[in-house]
Design brief:
single chain, alpha/beta, Rossmann fold, Nucleotidyltransferase, domain 5, 37% helix
């Protein structure tokens, strides 16, 4: 077999396009950063050879992405070509750091974390990296347009989609009245051009159909917009949930020590639907109070399994909950990126399939909508929660934990157990379930 080409046809087509205004909607894993930084490097090298200046600034969505664009993009190309350059990290405005490769004649390629205020006052060629995923890309756009007003400057807008209605969607839809030259490369296009990727493996790694459609097939989804859950799915799930029918219940508990809430979600299995029976919210509660509330839930409902946040401060409560209620019913969950994604997909699938019923409430809707996704390593989305209304996605994660509990293995075999009659005078209602053998 012959060696893989340095550039695939879709990359060569992009580099051959010398338009002043150019946009690219490319799939993940197809070399966006490699290709766009190569264009900038080739331009500054041409300028140095002709005794003129060329300067490029990459506006990234984070400091880490800016550093990666220079060290694993621009500097990589410089070394491969054998060009003389300096690799620098220099202070920039508003406490930001600019990472750059600078050539002896003064030309450079630099990258910074983008904010509208940092964009004003520049006079460079610009690359807007993952533009759709910037927090307010319309505000950023307003700050940038004057920067490239000089006819000799170029603008590059590169991203995967992030819903409809934002500036990137507008650019890719109509090219701003034909102003932009546009390039679209889905994972299918890239593989057809020779890129060695296993499409089915990537599809499985994406975790859910929306992530696959957006991140790999370059589809602009109406409900994406960075939110993990679609408003239409949340609203469809809300309404009367009915009364507890003494069925199997699944519990999710998101633990907090200070600042955020501890939330306990109780979901009853009614046919193939999970109905929310209770959403307990505890603020500034001690671990003793949190465990006491969990005890009450475990007695009041027929709990098959409870998934509890075991991350950091959750170690002790999980250990104590197992001692009190048995390891067969209590499962500790450490919030690794993979575990968070699996739980979030479980909740999302339930909502999309209309197999979960939730109570009405603005706070719950806001909490469910507060969790957003952004591109992560390997193509899998990275989930982030905005802190608002005294919550940090706490209701979301309690419900996600409960859905994960329901989806693990089904109810355990309790043939050897029976209900313990409720103790007279007990504060809580309903039967109590314990480990009394038949």
């Amino acid at each position: 077999m012959g060696a893989s080409p340095i550039l695939y046809p879709y990359q060569r087509r992009y580099l051959a396009d010398k338009s002043r205004w150019k946009a690219a909607c490319w799939s993940r894993q197809t070399g966006k950063t490699f290709t766009t930084t190569l264009e900038a490097v080739l331009d500054v090298l041409d300028a140095e050879a002709e005794w003129r200046l060329s300067r490029w600034t990459i506006l990234s969505i984070s400091r880490d992405r800016a550093l990666d664009a220079i060290r694993n993009g621009a500097a990589l190309h410089m070394r491969a070509i054998g060009a003389a350059f300096e690799l620098l990290d220099v202070p920039f405005e508003h406490d930001e750091m600019a990472h750059m490769v600078r050539l002896p004649g003064g030309s450079y390629v630099r990258a910074i974390a983008a904010r509208p205020e940092t964009a004003r006052g520049m006079s460079d060629n610009l690359i807007l990296d993952e533009f759709a995923h910037h927090r307010d890309n319309r505000e950023l756009w307003r700050a940038l347009v004057p920067v490239v007003s000089r006819p000799d400057l170029k603008l590059r807008v590169i991203s995967t989609p992030n819903g409809v209605g934002d500036m990137f969607h507008q650019i890719m839809t109509d090219g701003l009245g034909g102003l932009f030259s546009r390039h679209v490369v889905s994972i299918h296009d890239a593989v057809a051009d020779g890129l060695p990727r296993d499409i089915e493996e990537l599809r499985r790694a994406a975790g859910d159909p929306d992530t696959w459609a957006q991140e790999y097939e370059c589809q602009f989804l109406d409900h994406a917009a960075g939110h993990w859950l679609a408003m239409e799915d949340i609203l469809a799930a809300q309404g009367p949930t009915g009364d507890y029918a003494w069925g199997w219940c699944y519990v999710g508990m998101d633990i907090a020590a200070r600042g955020d809430m501890t939330v306990i979600a109780v979901l009853e299995e009614v046919g193939d639907v999970l109905a929310c029976r209770e959403l307990v919210e505890l603020k500034a509660a001690s671990f003793a109070a949190q465990l006491a509330e969990l005890d009450r839930v475990m007695r009041q409902y027929r709990v098959a399994r409870a998934c509890i946040d075991q991350t950091g401060m959750g170690e002790m409560p999980v250990e104590e909950a197992r001692r009190r209620h048995g390891s067969y019913r209590i499962e500790g969950v450490v919030f690794t990126p993979a575990a968070k994604l699996a739980m979030a997909v479980s909740l999302k699938d339930r909502l999309q399939q209309r197999r979960i019923r939730l109570p009405e409430g603005e706070a719950l809707v806001a909490d469910l909508r507060s969790v957003k996704s952004e591109p992560g390593a390997g193509g899998a989305p990275r989930l982030l929660a905005e802190r608002q209304g005294g919550s940090h996605g706490d209701r979301f994660w309690a419900l996600a934990l409960a859905c994960a509990a329901a989806g693990s293995e089904g109810p355990p075999a309790y043939e050897g157990f029976k209900a313990i009659p409720r103790v007279a005078g007990a504060a809580d209602d309903g039967p109590q379930y314990g480990r009394r053998m038949l």
